Amino acid sequence: MSLVFRKILIITLLVFAGNSWASEKVSLQLKWQHDFRSAGYYAALWQGFYEAEELDVSIVSSVAAGGSILNPVEEIIRGRAQIAIGGIDILVERGKGKDLVILAPIFQHMANSLFSLEKTQLDSVQDLGQLRIAADSDNYAREEVEALIRAHGVEPSSIVYVSSPATIESLLDGTVDVIVANGAITLTDARERNLALNQLSPGDYGLQFYGDTLFSHGKTFDESSDMLEAFLRASIRGWEYALSHKAEMSQRISLEFPRDEYSYEELSSYNFSLSDTIEAYMDYPLTEIGHSNKIRWVNMIRLLQSIGVLKTQLDFHDLVYIPDPESIDNQLIVLLVAGMGVLSGLVLYFMPSHRNLWPLFLISVIFIVFAEQRLERNFLYEYEAKIELDMTRQLNYISSNFSGMMSQKSAIINGLVAHIVTNPELTEESFERYSRAVFSKESFLKNIAVAPDLVISMIYPLKGNEAAMGFDYERNELQSDSVRRAVESKELIITGPVQLVQGGSAFIGREAVFINEKLWGIVSATLSSEVLYRRAGLLNPDITIDVTIRGGYGLYGDATVFYGDEGIFSDPRALNTSIVVGEDNWYLAANPKQGWNYVGSNLWLLRFSAIALLVVFLLYLAFRQRELNKVAQFEMRIYQNESLLRDVGKMALIGGWRVTSDRKIVQCSEQAAILMGVKYGERETIIDEVMQGFPSKQAEVFTSAFTEAITTGAAFDIEIYRNGVQSEKYWLKFIGDTALQEDGRYEVIGAVQNISERKVLSEVIQRQATFDLLTDLPNRFLFNDRLNEVVHRAARDNTQLAVLFVDLDKFKPVNDSLGHQAGDEFLKMVAARMQSSIRVSDTLARYSGDEFTIILQDITSLASVLTIVEKVLANINKPYTLNDMQIFCSASIGIAMYPEDALEADDLVSMADHAMYEVKLSGGNGWHFFTKQMQEKSKRRHFLHNELQQAVAKKELDVFYQPIVNVKDQKIVKYEALVRWFDKDGNLMPTEEFISIAEESGLINEIDRFVLKKSSDFLIQYGKINGVQIGLTVNLSPRIFTSRDDSVELWLGLVRGICNSIDLTVEITERLLTQDTDRALDVLQKLKTCGASVAIDDFGTGYSSLSYLTKFPIDYIKIDRSFIQNLDTDPAAKMLTDTIINLAKKMQLQVIAEGVEKLSHFEYLAEKGCEYAQGYYLGRPQSEQSLLDEFAQVDQVKVLKV
């Protein structure tokens, strides 16, 4: 292979050396004689730019030595020139079937212009009608005129061509009115003669034909594209130099190349004056030299076809050369396919002899990805070309429509100007007659106006345009600029879109009217913007391009984008064109709506095919690799003596060994020797001697398995251990397989692996699964296993055991106030104290959170159980020091006995949990044995919970109403809404019982919402007595403040809607103020914002301090019934009641007394100044129907006479 590479290297060096020794000869055929029109090519030659590209360029004049004119196309076709300069002739000759390729347009504008003497008006294309025109046929000047008039809607039959030379002499002798000639030459000649000419440049009127253009032969392009690219690069550099050194180049051209066609005294001056005109033709430096606009070429082709010069359809992509280094030709595709075939052959060749095929696969992947990327680039290039062609057609269509409509508008204004010139005393009648005729043909006009002395005096139609009458152009800064330009240029000026005085947006065309060289006024026509866009095709939903239009002048005289996205103009890939609009140009740019990066399904198919090819190839190689691996395994069995380590590697083990049927170790790897305690290299050691270093029971396991293997051929897989130097255990895994020998006996081949770490890890995992990581106590799963085991043993041995369920009291405040880390430390301390309180034979486990369980085995009496329980409680109750703080804690313990309370382990835990719950209900810090009554109570609570859940869901609860009376006038001012529940038999369920269940289960939040909604709806509808709305009081459970769901938000939502219609008071319990104060304060403040009042229920029975009364937004204090009911008998009750009433008055709070059941109670409260009272004496809770009956009986609700 090195010899082949050496040969390739030598050939490559020779090729490059050959290129460096000789420059390629190139002949450039000019279109003109030697002058500044070819300055860039001379500069590239003289400055060494061609030489730097290894090109030997000769520049040939259009005039041969004998005076004959050389045709650039003929010189290319005959092969005498490789590159030439042409114009329209390139397209015409290509249309005739000649294989020509455009390289780059050097002149952005064509050189020919139309000229007339000053006395012959030549202000617009329309002026050409009926004028005698001289145009040379050999340079396609006449075809340029035909294209120009076709673009501007001038009737071709109105043009008169004469067979005279297109020279200034023909103008002077009067044989022609207009000549079509090279602009640079003609203007220079006119300056020499001191002659003023009128000039009409086709480029100023939308005929965007390219001028001098480099082209070549298709064959040259195919064979020497690198040469053509090098020539272009050097020529562009030459033109940049020439345009930067005009004087220098003019002098040298004049010296190097004498003129045969014309003679001037100052040839250098002639070339220098020519340089400015050439720079304008090239549009330099605004346009990059050699820039080729695809849409302009397509427009040129379309116009030449429309006048019959081109008879065939030309494909832009085959005609114009666009450098694309990423493109890929058919030859390269063939090379890629051939390369793939060679690669496949190499794969098939190397497969039988190489077992690792993945390097070949890697090479294949690289090759396929490379091929796919090349093909994808080619696809994208062709896709973009297709998009560009479609965009070109659409942009041509839109620009053509714009040109046509603007030409029609120009004709309308020009016609009106001509009418005014012939009829300067324009009357409203004649103006209206003329305008009506115009409007009958043109539907896109909004109005036509005339402004004598620059003040609008006539407008058609007048209706809707009254605001424009009397408009003075000179006094309006926004429009004075365009009027001034119209007056100064004497041309049609179109501006817009502008906002009209009479309303709406439109384009306005204005032209000044001069009579005997004196300004008469302004004529204007207004074209609807929307109609223009629609008729141009911009609003067509079927177009697939985004178009942006920029005018030459905006409202203030500056270029501005008036339609579309301005950013499209800065996109280098956008297509651009322009049209002539009056004296200005409009520039159009377009991008595809889907963007340039949109790809179709074909590209995804190509990518999928490449991926599919890789997958298929991978699967095939994987299959072959697996087959080869099987062969390798078979060979390793044959060559076991040479590949023992490979066998061991196949089995994923560390050491290998071989033992014969007579129990001799004939082979043993170094690792196996170390693990088994055998001296490495020692031959024919008896395996039984090795087992002497293992504990006897472990040796018996191995010996038994080994004996069965050599006897029956059975394989084995065992785990045994031997003791290390420091008595640590080394766990070893022995795997043995047998091989039948020729003598009918079995030989054992095995491997040994140190699995000590795995064993330790397994123990760690087992412990993590069964022990609590925080307290290092057994977790729930291990506890249940041990409990089941202890229960079975107790059943077998007929013994007793006890299960304790321990729940820490008020652990949550500790966790919340000190943090979770401190809470964890606290749990560890509690666990340690409990562990020290029980016997070694007992089991303590962390069941969950702050719950623990204990198994007490072999119980002989209940006294022994209580001894341990009391000890546990005593130790838990001792103070704890945590974070330099002293913390106190207690516990609730439930006790269940086996077999008295339950026979199953799960039932024992459940019974102990029930007993613990009873302790909790009693205040905690104690213990309780499980009883049958607890079980019945638990069942009842479970039953009530299910029934209550259904009642809440079906809204089967009822609301009763108890009156709250104003003590002064004994009138009912509010009703307190109280929930009641009747079972299916109509029995009233105990309120305290089912409310307790609702609090525990969270149903209380839904009940509170139900009561609020039902009671408010009822009282709002029926609770107005003599026009006075009776208020409502509802209770709010503390549970809502600790709920994690959206209960608070739902409840507040109801309150907001209710407070607008009724006086609402919300009662909260006193203990709420001592819990989550921040949360409670936030909710209560929101209640106050809604307009509700807040009352503290059962005041005086809790632990709140006076500070809470000032902190929270409280309106009412409700004295607990326990104080009111004892007013007659207990002086302390009177004192507390007096204190609460006086305190409330000083804090500007109102008092509601509950439990008023006697007249004496009511009189006492009235005497002490209590504002409101509530109780059975004043009214019992009653149903809605009962309350409706009462409302119906009285006009004003009063209490009973006392």
Automatic annotation (TrEMBL):
<dbReference type="InterPro" id="IPR029787">
    <property type="entry name" value="Nucleotide_cyclase"/>
</dbReference>
<dbReference type="Pfam" id="PF00990">
    <property type="entry name" value="GGDEF"/>
</dbReference>
<dbReference type="GO" id="GO:0007165">
    <property type="term" value="P:signal transduction"/>
</dbReference>
<feature type="domain" description="EAL">
    <location>
        <begin position="941"/>
        <end position="1195"/>
    </location>
</feature>
<dbReference type="InterPro" id="IPR015168">
    <property type="entry name" value="SsuA/THI5"/>
</dbReference>
<protein>
    <recommendedName>
        <fullName>Diguanylate cyclase</fullName>
    </recommendedName>
</protein>
<dbReference type="GO" id="GO:0003824">
    <property type="term" value="F:catalytic activity"/>
</dbReference>
<keyword id="KW-1133">Transmembrane helix</keyword>
<feature type="transmembrane region" description="Helical">
    <location>
        <begin position="604"/>
        <end position="623"/>
    </location>
</feature>
<dbReference type="Pfam" id="PF09084">
    <property type="entry name" value="NMT1"/>
</dbReference>
<dbReference type="InterPro" id="IPR052155">
    <property type="entry name" value="Biofilm_reg_signaling"/>
</dbReference>
<dbReference type="InterPro" id="IPR006189">
    <property type="entry name" value="CHASE_dom"/>
</dbReference>
<dbReference type="Pfam" id="PF00563">
    <property type="entry name" value="EAL"/>
</dbReference>
<dbReference type="InterPro" id="IPR043128">
    <property type="entry name" value="Rev_trsase/Diguanyl_cyclase"/>
</dbReference>
<dbReference type="InterPro" id="IPR001633">
    <property type="entry name" value="EAL_dom"/>
</dbReference>
<feature type="transmembrane region" description="Helical">
    <location>
        <begin position="332"/>
        <end position="350"/>
    </location>
</feature>
<dbReference type="Pfam" id="PF03924">
    <property type="entry name" value="CHASE"/>
</dbReference>
<feature type="domain" description="GGDEF">
    <location>
        <begin position="799"/>
        <end position="932"/>
    </location>
</feature>
<keyword id="KW-0472">Membrane</keyword>
<dbReference type="InterPro" id="IPR035965">
    <property type="entry name" value="PAS-like_dom_sf"/>
</dbReference>
<dbReference type="GO" id="GO:0016020">
    <property type="term" value="C:membrane"/>
</dbReference>
<dbReference type="InterPro" id="IPR035919">
    <property type="entry name" value="EAL_sf"/>
</dbReference>
<keyword id="KW-0812">Transmembrane</keyword>
<dbReference type="InterPro" id="IPR000160">
    <property type="entry name" value="GGDEF_dom"/>
</dbReference>
<feature type="domain" description="CHASE">
    <location>
        <begin position="421"/>
        <end position="538"/>
    </location>
</feature>
<dbReference type="InterPro" id="IPR042240">
    <property type="entry name" value="CHASE_sf"/>
</dbReference>
